[in-house]
Amino acid sequence: MENLRLNVSLLRRRVPNLTSAAKSIGLRPATVSNLCTGKIPIGRSEVRTLVALASLAQCSLDELILKGETVEMIETKVKTLDLFAPIAKGGTVGLVARPGMGQLVVLGEMFYRLKQEGYSILLLKPEANHPELNDIIDHVDVVVDSIEKALEQTVVLGKKTDVIFTADRSHVLTGEIYKLQEQLQDEAIKPVTTFLLDLKGEVVDEDLPYGPLETLWHFDMDLAARHRYPAVNPIYSTSSVLEGAHLDQNHLFIQQRAQKLLRRYRELRSLVNVRGLDAIPSTELETYNRGERLEAYLTQPFYVAEPYTGKKGESVELKDTLHDVRKILDGVMDSEDIKVLDFIGKL
């Protein structure tokens, strides 16, 4: 099938309040979100949905649907992110989490890692005072306090390097972020990849808290409570990079197998928590054990957390992640103790 994807940046500019706009014409915000991130491929979407979105954006279907264009992935060398929800270069990443689930640690780690790769990091501070941001500011190149300064500094940085721009949801609600992204379209600069977070944690209760996104990182309270960091949900987190035509087919195949295993493992784990391990049918024990090992493997020591954990940060190239995950899926690690897989780099 021809490589098709939704023109997310166009939707973001034309329909900033997409949640209410989608509801007003009978579309489910979750469906729109899944189309934007690629969780629902364009080829499997309903024609009426695409026509309705084109109507909202006041554009043609040819403008709404991009053909033959690839999405470049930013490899972070964080196993669970690169496997399940890769960053689309030049796109927008939305972090969905409540306070205390580790989103700022993940964000700080992204800043640290991407700076090593030559990216410039810019942070637009929210209006309210948020002392928790102090933990990540050390890894930021430029901090600004207004959207005007953000535009000015992004253009300056973007003349020389790729830029990581970060802002709180408060700037999304005012519409400032959409205007900024639209203005940057007219500038001759290198790609700007945007991270959006919500320091209040209200995004968890909304369908499209940031509008259209290329990448969604959905944090998981159960993983955080059990200290399985990074606590990014491998089932609900997704990315437009994962559309088959944009991705190495081996990656897509392993990612889908891993998600299937983890989805069933989570169901079985709920049963074990209530009734004990003996409640699992013997035919499901293999699934449970492999899911347990895969979940352990997806934990990872971070560089920015070294002073607190005493563990040296680890980077794992995507090819190694895929190789290791396949070994776990195929049962090669079935006899290994789970502790061997906890907070390691590659196998």
UniProtKB/TrEMBL annotation:
InterPro entries per UniProt: ATPase_a/bsu_AS, ATPase_alpha/beta_chains, ATPase_F1/V1_b/a_C, P-loop_NTPase
Gene Ontology molecular functions: ATP binding; proton-transporting ATP synthase activity, rotational mechanism
Family in the record: Belongs to the ATPase alpha/beta chains family.
Location, primary (coarse class): membrane
Localization of this protein: Membrane
Keywords: ATP synthesis, ATP-binding, CF(1), Ion transport, Membrane, Nucleotide-binding, Translocase, Transport
Entry GO CC: proton-transporting ATP synthase complex
Membrane-spanning ranges: none
The organism's place on the tree of life at top rank: Bacteria
Protein name: ATP synthase subunit beta
Gene this protein is translated from: atpB_2
Organism: Pseudoneobacillus rhizosphaerae
Keyword DNA-binding belongs to the record: no
